[in-house]
Amino acid sequence: MKSKEQINNVPRDMRRRLALAHLLSIPFALFGFEALEAHKGLDLFLSQSPTTKRAEISLTECRRQLFSYWKQNHTTTAVGMLREIYEWIEQLEEEIVYGGKEQRAITMWYLCHYHMVFANVVRDLQDYEQAITHLNKAHQLAGHLKDSRPVRELKVLVFHRRGIALQERGDLIAAAQDFKAAQSLLTAASPQLHGAVLSSLGYAQAHLAQSRKDFYQALHLIDQSTSWIEQGKGEDEHFVKFGEERYHLDKAAAYLASPLATLCSPKDARRELREALTDPSLKRRYAYNTILQAKSYVAEGEYEQAITRAEEALTIAIEIQSKINISRVAQIYKKVQESPYAGHDDVMHLGVTLLRGQYPEIFA
Known about the structure:
Layout: H1 2-5, H2 14-23, H3 38-47, H4 59-75, H5 82-98, H6 104-124, H7 128-143, H8 149-169, H9 172-183, H10 191-208, H11 212-224, H12 244-255, H13 266-276, H14 283-300, H15 303-319, H16 323-337, H17 345-358, H18 360-363
């Protein structure tokens, strides 16, 4: 929609202006609504009846496609589907504007989910600003839905996913705040989501820990998430994908998270990674597991082992176009470059492969 509306092409339809101002978080005054406060503007929009008849989109197909995007991105990547996902966002926004009032709530519900899946894909491309922008839109949409248990669960999802994006961007305090906001609504959450929030909050707090007491409290929070694993083995409606494997990955990452060396435990991290037993067909998680192994070896000065694992992870990350994992390998490479092992052939080979991953256009 942005591509259609931004090139000096403000829509004449006042309802569409009002909807765009709300959905895109554009000041109402810029669309000619100087006298309207934001919440009053939305109430006016929702109270009006559509003036244009149009074919309704299939919400059944909308749901089916949503699950296919989540599944694809969990296994490898949905980068090639970003245009499709954005087209669904455009269609759902138009449906809110022009569709019947009886469909608006469910349409807003799906639009919220499409913003989240789009954010998840671009987060893996390290486009954190765009990811957080879409998650903010999802948060706004969820806030305008009538309060109910499913809506509160939707808010937990948004807080959790925005927390992850903030965490990846390096805003650990803001991430922890979002995880805590999600935690405050956990009575409405599914078992998988409940466990995921506790584990994510524990990891963030491990990263922020300044003492052993803080660190062990963070680990305890991650351990609390295990009580939800058995209950969460049913259908994962929201594609949270939290289970034993995710728990062990989060705990391994926590053992390596602190900038204070005294709060890191590489051997404990590798023990957790062995427990994770990541399926190689789930390439994104397998790459992440292997990166954590490499990171643990760097922490112990076992650079040859670290380079071997980093090379393996990098090959997968390049294949699935996972910039976030390529960046993680780059951090490992930088640390090895600063070590006495820097001049070895395998380090130089990793450096060349890393360049291919970071700047594929140069080697095309």
